[in-house]
Amino acid sequence: MRNVFARLNKKNSKSRKSANDPKLPLISAMIFALLAGAMLPLSLSPYEWWWFALISPAIFYVLLNNRSTKQAFWIGQSYGFGLWTVGGFWLYTSIHVYGDTPMPLALGMIAFVGLGMGLFNAIQAALYRRFFGHSPLTFAPLWVFAEWTKTWIFTGFPWLFAGYAFTTYQLDNFAPLAGIYAVSFVVIFIAASLIEIARGRLFWALPSLLLVVIAVGLGQVQWTSPKKSTPLTVSLIQGNIPQDLKWLTEYQGETLAIYATLSQKEWGRDLVVWPESSIPLFQADVQPFIDAVAKHAAQSNSAWVTGIPYAELNTYNPATNSYDEFYNAIMAAGKDSHGLYKKQRLVPFGEYVPLSGTLKWVLPSLKNDVSMTSFSAGGSHQKPLNVKGHRLAAAICYEVAYPNLTRNNAQRSDFLVTLSNDAWFTGTDGPWQHLQMVQMRAKENGRWFIRATNTGVTAFINPQGHIERMLKQDVRGVLRGDLPAMQGSTPYMRFGDWPILIISGLLLLLGGWVKRSSSPRRR
């Protein structure tokens, strides 16, 4: 392996001196990087033009050749800015339309998010040029670490990963083996290798082809299997409550009536699921309604799972007439069913607003909307919901974007369930990008994913990450399905992200060592 690195580094050193490999002026390179970054979201849902997931990083890879560390930083910043302002523009709807923020200020906030998230690519590019030779074997591992850090720095915003472009497109077969980061590694490695092949370095065709062959082979492996039991009959209720009405006091009764009415013909099925915050009141404020629905479900031999804001009653503060601790939660009730799950990861702007006290002058709706105040975070290692002898591992809304969190919750589960309210982002790409992440989580863990949402996309996703059935967006309706419980574990469930992180780390250590040992020594 060291000889491979050394040989490639030597060739790349020669190419840097070649007149046939000129550099663009920095400003031109930054513009091309901006456009390349803006391409990557087109590879994701709802477009799914997967080839852009190869073209976009390939252009980025080319633009970094022969660059200084400082130049690489600004090229990376431009790439990341293009990626996030286009791919994350769905935030504009929640900030401007539902946050009552003036358009210029809302656009400025989107640009600020783009600049902040662009730093990940900027630092990635700077480290790449400073410490490593120009090679797919170091470019791909650094990309993986850039994506991985997005899951935990500043609470995390794990979005727009390159690997999601290949959900259901063969390369996702690496997901149950080593997770989304392994898929991204393969995608980026192939993208960079295509550039090397175009430069006449045909050596890179072999490992790229080998990875594709391995992916096809992994697709034949069944990591998990259905239990020998009767499939669970499930009904998902999509109430389609507009976001501007959902939390209004005068509309709360109507919301409860809509869900109760839609569920009338579903009692008698094994499980009836309502989406996130379908009950727009704390449990203490609506206990008679909860008791009545739970009793009706039990009498019909049904389980009932619903999203609800859950307040810890012992934290009630008379001075403020509010609870000091309250959670975005999922509860299970009905026949032989129980459990409460409290959301663990609170994602900025989608679930809560950082510095909300300071930003209330920017987002006036914060003053009146409980869904836009800061929820408390639930503890780790919560038990699955118990539903008629089955264990449902839960995730709420954007929490499902965190691969390792979903993996931890999925341990010893029969099904995965996620409840969401994407009404904040109606008419944007956000709900579709979100759904694609759920598909990847199903593939990683080898479980059926039950997804109930307020306005869409409500769906049943099989253990291969394929959508079996779904409801249209922005309609009021019911989705029914018969789902087998799954058993067994994927390698990703057992080992998590460590294998791909360790492999990436070793490649970077070796690549950095080879570059230092092959660099001319100063006397």
Automatic annotation (TrEMBL):
An individual GO BP term: lipoprotein biosynthetic process
EC number: 2.3.1.269
Compartments (UniProt record): Cell membrane
Domain of life according to the entry: Bacteria
One Gene Ontology CC term in the entry: plasma membrane
Cited InterPro entries: Apolipo_AcylTrfase (IPR004563), C-N_Hydrolase (IPR003010), C-N_Hydrolase_sf (IPR036526), LNT_N (IPR045378)
Membrane topology, record value: Multi-pass membrane protein
GO molecular function, one term: N-acyltransferase activity
Keyword annotations from UniProtKB, A to Z: Acyltransferase, Cell membrane, Lipoprotein, Membrane, Transferase, Transmembrane, Transmembrane helix
Domain (CN hydrolase): residue spans on this chain: 237-485
Parts of the chain that traverse the membrane: 24-43, 49-66, 78-99, 105-128, 140-162, 174-195, 202-223, 495-514
EC class name: transferase
Gene3D superfamilies membership: Carbon-nitrogen hydrolase (3.60.110.10)
Pathway membership: Protein modification; lipoprotein biosynthesis (N-acyl transfer)
UniProt-annotated stretches for the region Disordered: 1-20
Compositionally biased tracts (Basic residues): 8-17
A UniProt-annotated Pfam family: LNT_N
Role: Catalyzes the phospholipid dependent N-acylation of the N-terminal cysteine of apolipoprotein, the last step in lipoprotein maturation.
Entry's family note: Belongs to the CN hydrolase family. Apolipoprotein N-acyltransferase subfamily.
Protein name from the UniProt record: Apolipoprotein N-acyltransferase
